[in-house]
Amino acid sequence: MFPMGWEEILPGLWHFWNDPVDGIGSHSYLVQREQGNLVFEGATIYSASALEHIAALGGVQFASASHPHTYGALWQLQDHFDAHIALHKGDLAWTSAFRVTHPFDDKLDFSPRLRLLHAGVHFEGQAFLVDEDRGLIFCGDAMKFDLRKDNPRSAVAISSHKSYVRSISLTAGEITQYRAVFRQNKFNKVYSPFEQVHNVDSEMVDRYLSRLAEQFPQANFIDLADLL
């Protein structure tokens, strides 16, 4: 009834998505850990077979999401696996479908190399997940990518926005805020709720945001080749 696909993108990192799906159809990521698995971003709905697969991977100890648009079926993971849910305190008003067990302020460390960071901007409580072991930052809707048609893990252009659908640009202060959060981390892959990009790193994101800060605010894509 609720078709769902999954794949192991990197060792111990699983990607789940619905296809077809109504709504925005955010993708979900599961990080396998000996201390207990972590899910970041909620899929629209988890199929019975997907829940069985997640159980075989060790279930879910913690679940989180970058912002309310990607909460999806976090409630389902809490009901099925008794998962703890960790979210920034700024977005607690959006959480009536599940119980937040671990609200946090500026950051929440799951381990010395795996943490949630408050970013703000898109929503008051918007958060990133940083996985240093895999060189990854899960950035929510902070970044949007135009992907190569022959390689969906490779981007050709990058953008950032307050609202992508309505093409509303960031303010100067919001660009500065994003840049400060991204600068706290070194990474060589960027995952949004919709894209998994392996050719964008922390230096390129910093160059992109610095370029935005130098020009009149806009939400258009900038070619990655112009940032090299």
Helix content: 10-25%
- Give the strand tally: 16
What is the straight-line distance between the termini?
Answer: 45 Å
Oligomer: single chain
Description:
The radius of gyration is 17 Å and the shape is globular. α3 (172-182) runs antiparallel to α4 (202-214). The strands form 3 sheets. The protein has a 7-stranded mixed sheet, covered by helices on one side. A 6-stranded mixed sheet has the order 8-9-10-11-14-15, with no helix packed on it. It is an alpha+beta fold and 228 residues long. It has one domain (4-227): Ribonuclease Z/Hydroxyacylglutathione hydrolase-like (Metallo-beta-lactamase, Chain A, 4-Layer Sandwich), CATH 3.60.15. β4, α1 and β5 form a beta-alpha-beta unit. Helices cover 18% and strands 31% of the residues. The longest helix is centred in the last third of the chain and has 13 residues, at 202-214. It starts with a strand and ends in a 5-residue tail after the last strand. The chain has helices at 48-56, 74-81, 172-182, 202-214, and strands spanning 4-10, 13-18, 28-31, 38-40, 62-64, 84-88, 102-104, 107-111, 114-118, 127-131, 136-138, 144-148, 151-159, 189-191, 196-197, 222-223. The chain contains 4 helices and 16 strands.
